[in-house]
Amino acid sequence: MAVRLPRPHRDDVRIAAAGLFGGLFLYAVGLGTRPAGEPIVLWPDSRALLVPLVVMAGCELLRRTGPRTALLVGTVAVIADLFTRGSLATLVMFTDLVYAAVLYGPPASARRIPWITGLLTVAGTIAPVAVWREPEALLIGVGVGVVALAPAATGWIVRSHRNAADAARLRAEQTALLAEMDRSQAVTAERARMARELHDMVANHLSAIAIHSTAALSLDDADTSKEALGVIRENSVAGLAEMRRLIGILRDSSGDTEPVAAPTLDGLGALVDHARANGLDVHLDCTHTSLPAPVEMAAYRIVQESLTNALKHASPGRVTVALTQREHALDVRVTSPFGGGRDSGPRAPGSGAGLVGMSERVALLHGTFEAGPEEPEDPDGLEGLEGGKTWTVRATLPITEGETE
């Protein structure tokens, strides 16, 4: 199978062409780096320098796609050039190969080449001085340093700056991505919070309005209709007030609304009285001391939504609200009659968003939540109010140690 060589980069082609034509120009004018009479020149024919020149130009084509191979072949070519009259273009292209091998080569090569060229420079300085005992021998080490060590060090510096720039760009992209994720999560969390608040604050009143308007339309009794219209007006005014307070939460700097106080368990009495006014038979059993504000608000909203669901869906009978504080948790339990009667169908439409909202509130406090029908102890008593099937909402809200009094 034929091996397909990588295509040279356009800039590498330009560099190779410039080096080759520059070397040919120097050859044409007869300019070499050494006179033909020097002992090191084994091939005094001026045409001999063209072979290393052409090979070095070919290596330049691989300076990006195969930097290590280019440097190895180029090293052989520059050594061969030492035994000819020499070409300055060959030396210049070799320095570029050293630079490219450090800049574009694998990390291991990029680390080793500066050390190797440094050792060669030191050896090229010490050995000639030790052998010839002449100060001019230091120029050999200087030449090795200029041709090998200097481009290798330059390539290492440029590579380090590029790596640092790439790392900084990657960190910036990661920071931007994390910021966008945080923003999206914050927007989603805020939308979910506002959806829970809107549902809990308004749904109770709208459910009462729907039920009493249905009663007013279905019963041909003036007193009953008047009473239902009174309840409808009361819930409409209360719902409008709740909606205005919710708008006040959304307006951060409007200046036309006062801050909304978070509901607490002290308001459960008024909440139960409101449910009784809407026709529910509610019994409240609440024992607690001072609790963290998030726990009180979550418990209040769970009771509020449970009463709203009981108003819309429960069969006639008693609704029981029980809150019990334990050492590290608050237990909320709301039970209401469910099924078994002739009028057990839904009395107002529901979407299921209330159960989702209650579950989300409990999850935010790392508590547990359950809601569903309970099997009666006496299956034969489904028709009876006391032994009928019940719908039970249970929530356990953890209390952080040290926050209660």
Content of β-strand: 5-15%
What ranges have pLDDT less than 50 throughout 5 or more consecutive residues? 253-259, 340-346, 377-387, 401-405
Radius of gyration: 44 Å
Secondary structure class reads alpha+beta
Oligomeric description of these chains:
single chain
What distance lies between the first and last C-alpha atoms, to the nearest angstrom? Answer: 83 Å
Strands of the largest sheet, in order across it?
1-2-3-5-4
How would you characterize this protein structure?
The chain has 405 residues and is of the alpha+beta class. The protein has two domains: 10-173, no CATH class; 262-405, Heat Shock Protein 90 (2-Layer Sandwich). The protein is 60% helix and 10% strand. It is built from ten helices and five strands. It has a five-stranded mixed β-sheet, with helices on one face. Strand 2 and strand 3 (329-337) form a beta hairpin. The chain is rod-shaped and about 130 Å long. Mean pLDDT is 80; it is low at 253-259, 340-346, 377-387 and 401-405.
Question: TL;DR of this structure?
Answer:
This protein is of the alpha+beta class and 405 residues long. It is built from ten helices and five strands.
SSE blueprint:
Layout (H helix, E strand, L loop, with lengths): L9 H19 L21 H11 L6 H16 L5 H17 L2 H26 L5 H81 L3 H29 L17 H10 L3 E7 L5 H21 L4 E8 L3 E9 L15 H12 L3 E7 L15 E9 L7
Parallel strand pairs: 1-2
Antiparallel strand pairs: 2-3, 3-5, 4-5
Helix pairs in contact: 1-2, 1-4, 2-3, 2-4, 3-4, 4-5, 4-6, 5-6, 6-7, 6-9, 6-10, 8-9, 9-10
